[in-house]
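Q: Please design a sequence for this.
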């Protein structure tokens, strides 16, 4: 959540490939989806097809496309991520792909479609239930349930908040606490 410090650390290192993911995340955190897309498109356009090492970039591309309002392109990126995950037979990547599919479904499809993807992601993350990714899956589930299941949304948001606080993920914790306030529930049980 310390965006200014991250930018300071990146200054002068924009040409390093290892900085691509961080630069894109920084742009997204600031609401600069155009800049995030430019960074990601440049990085992913270097090869004719995505490779396994591109999985984090594809996950970010889904978020950037959704932030930019391009749900169909986000869906294509989510499916590219899913294809890589299937090839790798990695529960972690398969969970990331389900999260990406859930984010797309939440904006494009029926309300229940997103929760199915989030549940699948959480099942794949059972061995990593204390991870940042699992916390983000819980928060995504809470957001998906916001309009249809108040109690479920509060329960998932509280679980996400506990995960983020334990990990010291302040920005994510702030998002979970904000959702709890929107739901009319304090950030504490």
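A: Design:
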């Amino acid at each position: 959540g310390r965006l200014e410090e991250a930018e300071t650390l990146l200054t002068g290192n924009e040409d390093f490939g290892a900085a691509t993911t961080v630069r894109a995340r920084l742009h997204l955190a600031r609401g600069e989806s155009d800049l995030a897309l430019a960074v990601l498109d440049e990085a992913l356009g270097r090869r004719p097809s995505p490779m396994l090492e591109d999985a984090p970039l594809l996950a970010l591309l889904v978020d950037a496309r959704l932030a930019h309002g391009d749900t169909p392109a986000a869906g294509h990126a989510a499916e590219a991520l899913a294809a890589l995950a299937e090839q790798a037979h990695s529960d972690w990547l398969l969970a990331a792909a389900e999260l990406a599919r859930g984010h797309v479904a939440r904006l494009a499809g029926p309300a229940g479609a997103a929760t199915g993807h989030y549940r699948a992601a959480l099942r794949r993350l059972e061995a990593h239930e204390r991870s940042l990714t699992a916390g983000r899956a819980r928060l995504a589930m809470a957001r998906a349930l916001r309009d249809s299941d108040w109690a479920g949304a509060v329960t998932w948001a509280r679980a996400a908040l506990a995960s983020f606080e334990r990990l010291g993920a302040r920005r994510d914790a702030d998002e979970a606490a904000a959702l709890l306030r929107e739901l009319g529930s304090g950030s504490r049980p």
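Q: Thanks. Anything notable?
A: The two ends are 24 Å apart (CA to CA). The chain is about 75% helix and 0% strand.
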